[in-house]
Design a protein that fits this description.
Helices cover 51% and strands 16% of the residues. The chain is of the alpha/beta class. Among the domains are: 126 residues, no CATH class; 246 residues, Rossmann fold (3-Layer(aba) Sandwich), CATH 3.40.50.12370. Helix 1 crosses helix 3 and helix 8 packs across helix 9.
Length: 599
């Protein structure tokens, strides 16, 4: 049987006081322990903040929070809206309104004076009462703390990923990313200014004209300004700057961007935007024009930019191959030959639109210029002349001035586009260097390769054939009018290239074609050539001969009144050709007709 204990009033009061004191004692001790733990956590967070600062000196990445006022001014606020109470990710809070210098980008405390306040917030956060929601501004998916910086810092330290916040959305002309740094803000500030002037974010919202390199928007604005003055002269009604900006975007910017997309060039330049490449192309085009002395199309600048600076493996390998082959002075054909598929694709239009002609002096090189003009007229292209002198002073000599005047006169009379560039140095390397800017190289056949081995090894023309990245048309005396061409076909890869070129000229230029086979071994290949040409409805004359290849070719040219010889280039590497001699060299020595040498 349980005995019930009855306390009088005095005893009850004493007991209540004892319990209150005990509860208070325990609470005070628990709070003291929680506060001590919070202080320790703060000190640990401070050490990590110091370590972040040291590491940032090596990474170059700032650990500073962004200032909301600075962001707001740079990105051009266009509106605000209250979004109420929400749960937001702590990792998306990247700045503050007033305390952006007191915490790191990850909200680690930077000031020792904040120890007590930070510790009290942690005690409250982990206590029963908790803490109220923070107040933030939102720009895109990023947040800036208005009130509650210590609560954000403590919550992150405690391992939380989300936090309650009253959110006010701030709309800007330019988007903001969570990992943006101050440098990014400067670039986006320029972008915002550009959009404010052009209003392209409203008229063409699908365009991303963000540049990752600062100080370049003036180039876009200069283009728009130039377009503005041009249109004002030709348009029947006055246009606003915004209207001109839209026309510029549609007619100038977008076609280039479309080419960038089709070529997949952005894959070559990671971390860059389409607008970056557009500006880079403009600069590269201007540089090439200045260095080459020729007009350079945006497509040519694009192809060169991709080849010279692209980061994809094929481009890197090709650049490396060029350097290695230049160093060891071997045959560069494999490294620089155009891809066959590219040739086939272009043959639907014009295969030789850009013709480089090597000029010496007038009237000595007149027949070479006439040959280039003949081709350009058929291909609706342009002539790019090159004259190589020995000294810089020679560029301004009377002889060079006369050469330029005659060059421009003949191009103008023929109604073709023509530009003459001057270079200083050795002729062969300069011609090879310039040849990549053309589809065909036309040169005078003044000094064909000699018959002796040592003479062949030192022949500039032999070197030109070996190293030129483009086909060569060697003109000995008079230009070809492309009435008929003769080529030898033996089924080899070189012969197939020659057959391809012959088929193109026959089809596009209405030129007769004569195909020669030499000896019993080549007889089966005549049927192969005949089948190939028949596929393109090309009728040719087929000749069988037991003479040497060079003799058979030249005899067929004379008998069938041809004024062009088409050859497939060296059948083996250039060094072996120089030592052993080749059909190409023999034909060049003996031919009175222009000789087209394929790559």
């Amino acid at each position: 049987m349980t005995q019930q204990i009855t306390l009088d009033r005095t005893q009850q009061i004493t007991l209540d006081r004892t319990l209150v004191n005990l509860t208070k004692f325990m609470s005070d001790n628990l709070q003291s322990y929680a506060f001590t733990t919070a202080v320790s956590d703060f000190q640990q967070a401070r050490r990590r903040a110091s370590l972040e600062k040291i590491l940032s000196q090596f990474t170059g990445k700032s650990t500073n929070l962004l200032s909301f006022d600075e962001v707001r001014q740079k990105l051009k606020v266009s509106g605000m809206a209250d979004k109420g109470l929400q749960e937001i990710p702590l990792s998306a809070i990247i700045g503050s309104v007033n305390r952006y210098t007191d915490f790191t980008r990850t909200f680690l405390p930077r000031r020792d004076e904040d120890e007590n306040r930070w510790a009290r917030v942690q005690v409250a956060t982990t206590g029963l009462a908790g803490v109220p929601p923070i107040l933030v501004y939102q720009i895109n998916q990023s947040y800036f703390v208005i009130d509650g910086n210590h609560r954000v810092s403590v919550s992150r330290e405690l391992g939380a990923t989300m936090i309650q916040a009253y959110v006010t959305e701030v709309r800007t002309k330019v988007p903001l990313a969570n990992d943006d740094q101050l440098d990014d803000l400067l670039r986006k500030s320029e972008y915002a200014d550009f959009l404010e002037r052009t209003e392209l974010n409203e008229s063409r919202p699908e365009l991303n004209l963000l540049l990752t390199v600062p100080g370049k928007y003036w180039m876009l604005e200069a283009q728009i300004e130039a377009h503005y003055y041009l249109l004002q002269k030709t348009h029947p009604e006055p246009l606003t700057y915004r209207q001109v900006a839209m026309i510029w975007a549609d007619e100038i910017y977008l076609p280039v961007v479309q080419s960038i997309r089709e070529r997949g060039i952005l894959h070559d330049f990671p971390r860059r935007t389409e607008a970056d490449l557009y500006v880079w192309l403009i600069e590269h085009q201007a540089t090439l024009k200045q260095n080459l002395g020729w007009r350079v199309t945006i497509d040519e600048a694009m192809a060169d930019l991709q080849k010279q600076f692209g980061t994809r493996l094929p481009n890197v390998i090709e650049r490396f191959s060029h350097r290695v082959l230049e160093v060891i002075a071997l045959d560069t054909v494999a490294a620089v030959t155009k891809d066959k598929e590219e040739l086939l694709a272009r043959s639907e239009h014009h295969l030789f639109g850009e013709v480089l002609v090597a000029m010496t002096s007038f009237p000595k090189s007149l027949h070479v210029l006439e040959q280039a003009i003949e081709i350009v007229q058929r291909e609706q292209g342009q002539v790019r002349g090159l004259h190589v002198v020995t000294t810089e002073a020679a560029k301004t000599s009377e002889t060079v001035k006369a050469l330029r005047a005659e060059f421009e006169y003949y191009c103008k009379e023929a109604l073709v586009k023509g530009e003459l560039a001057l270079e200083v140095g050795a002729p062969t390397p300069k011609i090879v260097e310039r040849a990549r800017w053309a589809d065909l190289l036309v040169v005078p056949l003044n000094h064909p390769p000699k018959g002796q081995i040592l003479a062949r090894l030192g022949s500039g023309f032999h070197t030109l054939i070996a190293q030129s990245p483009r086909p060569i048309l060697a003109v000995p005396y008079a230009p070809s009018r492309f009435q008929g061409a003769v080529l030898a076909y033996d089924g080899s890869a070189k012969a197939k290239e020659a057959l391809f070129v012959g088929a193109y000229m026959s089809s596009k230029w209405s030129m007769r074609l004569v195909v020669v086979s030499v000896g019993e071994m080549d007889l089966p290949y005549i049927d192969e050539a005949q089948e190939y040409l028949a596929n393109y409805n090309i009728k040719a004359t087929y000749v069988r001969s037991n003479n040497s290849v060079a003799t058979a070719i030249l005899e067929a040219a004379q008998v069938h009144a041809c004024d062009l010889v088409i050859l497939g280039g060296y059948g083996y590497n250039a060094m072996m050709a120089a030592v052993m001699g080749s059909t190409v060299d023999e034909v060049l020595r003996r031919s009175s007709y222009p000789v087209f040498i394929c790559r």
